[in-house]
Specification:
- The chain has seven helices and 30 strands.
- It is of the alpha+beta class.
- It has four domains: 27-148, Immunoglobulins (Immunoglobulin-like); 156-237, Immunoglobulin-like; 246-332, Immunoglobulins (Immunoglobulin-like, Sandwich); 339-429, Immunoglobulins (Immunoglobulin-like), CATH 2.60.40.10.
- The strands form seven sheets. Strands 1, 2, 4, 5, 6, 9, 10, 12 and 15 form a nine-stranded mixed sheet that branches. Strands 19, 21, 22, 24, 25, 26 and 28 form a seven-stranded mixed sheet that branches. A four-stranded antiparallel sheet has the order 14-13-16-17, with no helix packed on it.
- The longest helix is centred in the C-terminal third of the chain and has 32 residues, at 442-473.
- It binds 2-acetamido-2-deoxy-beta-D-glucopyranose (3 copies).
- One 2-acetamido-2-deoxy-beta-D-glucopyranose is lined by residues 293, 295-296.
């Protein structure tokens, strides 16, 4: 077998020499044989161009009349040399039926001395020795290019599903015996690349994760010291974002649990059959219907109001094609528990305890007193001076040794993780009790002010109405008005009038 291939190889290598000798009468130029390795499915360029010296001799541009003939020797299907592509002097192009839509020459490049043959996409049966014969004027230029194909096989084929056993293998058309296969994974720049080498050549990934996606290179080393390699992009259909996402939500607020596929399944000719959420609470499985648009790749779960009972593990299961992938999402609910249940009075000793239902262990808490001023952004006005005198500003417990009026308003407990602020919960502290009426607070002061304003406004309306009524009566009984002014003491009359007015007008 090896002998046969050696004979074949010699035949093919010697063939051009023989051809060259036959054409010795013409001024002949031939480039040395080149070997091109490409991955099956990618594009190949079989190079063939005139040297710069040749181009200078041809005064920069070649004549219009050029003929290019690309032939192929060998290959599994055709043992006879056969025409791959031919461009005649007339410019007419002929292509072998088998390779027709896949092979091309860059026509404008021909007269610049570039006769390279492009094959897109390359198939494993395209392997073989290719020869170009270019004729112009009395010149003949020939090129010999050997095309080798590397095949990367994925099982199951694209798309690879997250967590589903993946086998990757690599072979090539090289005839020598394989010594070693190495796999290189270079993810995002900056991240460490990984290398796996083995004799068998097949790389198996038990549970492919999203981090396994990206650029891979397989390298084959043969007994004759030949080393060939091919790169490919591994796409994994899984979920965006972290492997075990945790969503932090304040008790009483809404929460959105993410579930977004890394690719639109239609990009692989697949469709989403179903997506559903379940809550793994209390051992039993609670199903959530999903009415999202299934041609999308995002299936978030919206919980309008969450309580501590909603916390826990949720699972988003998406059926793509006939396969199913799922992602667990943890909902952690942040709550505030005050040490005093019911009304808080001035002077009380108060503890506000911030707690997290599902702590990952790395969270820390921070308490802030938010300025009640509605015009300013809440976070920006988090007043640190209000925290003076409070022992626990950091940590889950806020201690107020003696509640005073300045402590009223909104307290915010923020949860921080290594990646920043994760969530927050607010607690509204209102002070009630007898002290409020005796010593009006800022808030009750505001209420009193509003009440006074309302009474004053009503009074003003009545006075104006009274005045108008008086003016309306004036022209008819000017004397009577005077009499009233003189005889009747004004105060009782005013009160009397006012009472009437309030009955009728107010
Ligand atoms: C010749 O043309 C091919 C495309 O057909 C191109 O890839 C290659 O770079 C060109 N070579 C030169 C030397 O311009
Ligand atoms: C590589 O192996 C695959 C099957 O595993 C086969 O179809 C292909 O022809 C082989 N490629 C070469 C270049 O031998
Ligand atoms: C689903 O979403 C796609 C685009 O994301 C849109 O074109 C299509 O009309 C939507 N279908 C329904 C039923 O909403």
């Amino acid at each position: 077998m090896r002998l046969v291939s050696l004979v074949l190889f010699l035949t093919f290598t010697l063939l051009p020499f023989t051809a060259g000798h036959i054409q010795l009468g013409l001024s002949e130029g031939r480039s040395r044989e080149q070997k091109v390795w490409v991955r099956e499915g990618s594009s190949a360029v079989l190079p063939c161009h005139l040297s710069p010296r040749k181009m200078r001799e041809s005064s920069k541009q070649l004549p219009d009349k050029i003929s290019v003939l690309w032939k192929r020797h060998g290959g599994s299907v055709h043992q006879e040399p056969h025409v791959v592509l031919e461009v005649g002097y007339s410019g007419l192009q002929k292509t072998a039926l088998l390779m027709k839509p896949r092979v091309s020459l860059q026509e404008p490049a021909l007269r610049n001395g570039n006769f390279s043959l492009r094959i897109v996409p390359v198939r494993s049966e395209d392997v073989g020795l290719y020869e170009a014969q270019v004729k112009y004027k009395t010149e003949v230029h020939s090129c010999h290019v050997e095309l080798g194909v590397i095949t990367v096989t994925l099982f199951p084929p694209n798309p690879v599903m997250e967590n589903e056993l993946l086998l990757m293998s690599c072979n090539s058309s090289h005839q020598a015996s394989l010594v070693e296969t190495c796999w290189f994974h270079s993810e995002h720049p900056g991240r460490t690349s990984r290398t796996f080498c083995s004799l068998s050549g097949t790389l198996s990934i038990l549970h492919p994760a999203m981090s396994d996606a990206g650029s891979w290179r397989c390298q084959l080393r043969y007994s004759d010291k030949e080393i060939v390699s091919a790169t490919f992009n591994l796409q994994i259909l899984g979920f965006d974002g972290p492997t075990s996402p945790v969503v932090y939500a304040a008790a009483g607020s809404a929460a959105d649990l993410p579930c977004s596929l890394s690719y639109l399944p239609s990009a692989f000719g697949m469709s989403v059959v179903a997506a559903h959420w379940s809550h793994l609470a209390g051992g039993h499985l609670q199903d959530w219907g999903i009415s999202q648009n299934l041609s999308s790749r995002s299936f978030p779960l919206h919980l309008p109001v969450v309580g501590p009972g909603d916390a826990g593990q949720y699972r988003c299961t998406v059926s793509v094609g006939h396969r199913t992938i799922s992602r667990d999402v943890t909902l952690a609910v942040v709550t505030v528990t005050p040490s005093i249940q019911g009304p808080v009075s001035e002077g009380n000793h108060l503890l506000l305890i911030c707690s997290l239902t599902h702590s990952q262990g790395h969270e820390h808490f921070q308490w802030k007193h938010l300025d009640p001023a509605p015009t300013k952004s809440k976070l920006a006005v988090a007043t640190s001076h209000n925290l003076e005198g409070h022992s626990s500003q950091m940590g889950p417990t806020l201690e107020i040794p003696q509640v005073s009026q300045k402590d009223t308003g909104t307290w915010e407990c923020s949860v921080y993780g290594p990646e920043g602020r994760l969530g927050a919960v607010e607690y509204d502290l209102q002070i009630t009790g007898a002290q409020v009426s005796s010593a009006p607070s800022v808030l009750s002061g505001q209420i009193t002010f509003g009440l006074t304003l309302t009474i004053f406004f009503l009074l003003a309306v009545c006075v104006v109405a009274l005045a108008l009524q008086k003016r309306a009566q004036a022209p008819a009984f000017p004397a009577l008005e005077g009499m009233f002014a003189v005889n009747v003491p004004w105060k009782p009359m005013e009160e009397n009038q006012k009472g009437k007015m309030q009955q009728t007008e107010c």
